[in-house]
Amino acid sequence: MGTLARTKSIEAYKVLIECLNDKTVRGHAIEGLGKLGCVDVIPVLESLNVEKGLYEYKARETALKRLRRRMDKSK
């Protein structure tokens, strides 16, 4: 998932979004979306139902923090 994020392509974005439905790689997909840097995914990440204490929860919070900082810098 990290490699996909580094490609910075629309195809990578689509694959990462699709992977959010797969519980086995969901946390890695969330992390990849954060690294991809597309602020449009913020509402998607905010709406994800993730259990506090799990890897995907930490990945979501980190991704949201990263994306919000990026959004603030572009204003």
UniProtKB/TrEMBL annotation:
Stored InterPro entries: ARM-like (IPR011989), PBS_lyase_HEAT (IPR004155)
A Pfam family the protein falls into: HEAT_PBS
Name of the protein described by the UniProt record: HEAT repeat protein
Organism: Neobacillus ginsengisoli
